Automatic annotation (TrEMBL):
Main location: cytoplasm
Taxonomic placement: Eukaryota, Metazoa, Chordata, Craniata, Vertebrata
InterPro entries: DNA_recomb/repair_RecA-like, HR_Repair_Mediator, P-loop_NTPase, Rad51_C, RecA_ATP-bd
Recorded family membership: Belongs to the RecA family. RAD51 subfamily.
Record organism: Ficedula albicollis
Start and end residues of each RecA family profile domain: 33-223
A molecular-function term among this protein's GO annotations: ATP binding
Name this protein carries in UniProt: DNA repair protein RAD51 homolog 3
Gene Ontology CC: cell junction; cytosol; mitochondrion; nucleoplasm; perinuclear region of cytoplasm; Rad51B-Rad51C-Rad51D-XRCC2 complex; Rad51C-XRCC3 complex; replication fork
GO term, biological process aspect, one: spermatogenesis
Localization per record: Cytoplasm, Perinuclear region; Mitochondrion; Nucleus
Record PROSITE patterns: RECA_2
UniProt keyword list: ATP-binding, Cytoplasm, DNA damage, DNA recombination, DNA repair, DNA-binding, Mitochondrion, Nucleotide-binding, Nucleus, Phosphoprotein
UniProt KW Ion transport keyword: no
Amino acid sequence: VRQECHGDAARTAGGSGVTRKCTALDLLEEEQSQGFIITFCSALDNILGGGVQLTKITEICGAPGVGKTQLCMQLAVDVQIPECFGGVAGEAVFIDTEGSFMVDRVVDIAAACVQHCHLIAEAQQEEDHGKALETFSLENILSHIYYFRCRDYTELLAQVYLLPEFLSEHSKVRLVVIDGIAFPFRHDFEDLSLRTRLLNGLAQQLIIIANDHKSAVILTNQMTTRIGQNQSTLVPALGESWGHAATVRLILHWDNSQSPKPRDAKEGFKATNQCGSGQAADPELQGLNLVKTV
């Protein structure tokens, strides 16, 4: 049962340990007052009820290459959309455990977002839009994405437990991304009970961060194969207990089992006995067909 309404109010009052009581109506009003991180993708925003909600944990699951990191980088830009465009005008913390953060891609996403906001401003011709766009630039967006690289579970745990202090110094942060929550915990763990305890503690810390700092927490998770009696299915990693950590679980998959992998194309090359320099070519290469990926 939730016994507090406003962040860490229950931990104040001189350390008396008395929690602040509130009604269900208070909780409803507080819930409805929380903002959303819009994505400018109407289908995704509608599925999420308006966007990624602040104070909640959202888990993004999917097979490798399906676009989990791309979506996280997109959200790290979207959280900075000015309020007059429907955003929250915040900042982002990006914790990378797999080394998949691509700054070049973030530049492309940020530039496209700025351009989209300029198009909206030109269409609506509102004064506050022009003022907001004066500071909503590519350089400003990149300077407000705080990147941390964690190479194992000890670094990840340390970073998460030190995060409240960082967020207190950067009060505009409204998004915390952990790209690859499962990666540090899927190797070198013989004691599964220890892993479960560490994950449960991590989940509780993330809930505290989301509530106390009014931030959205985004986690990406890998998929694993569950073997049944008659078939095998892909399910999110880290087990059933971890599945209760997130408020929202978003599972990405390929449409019709098709992925945007590079297509293979074949082209025929006729090998002659003369090269461009006039020297004789290797006789064994005559009639060779080469295959290239485009």
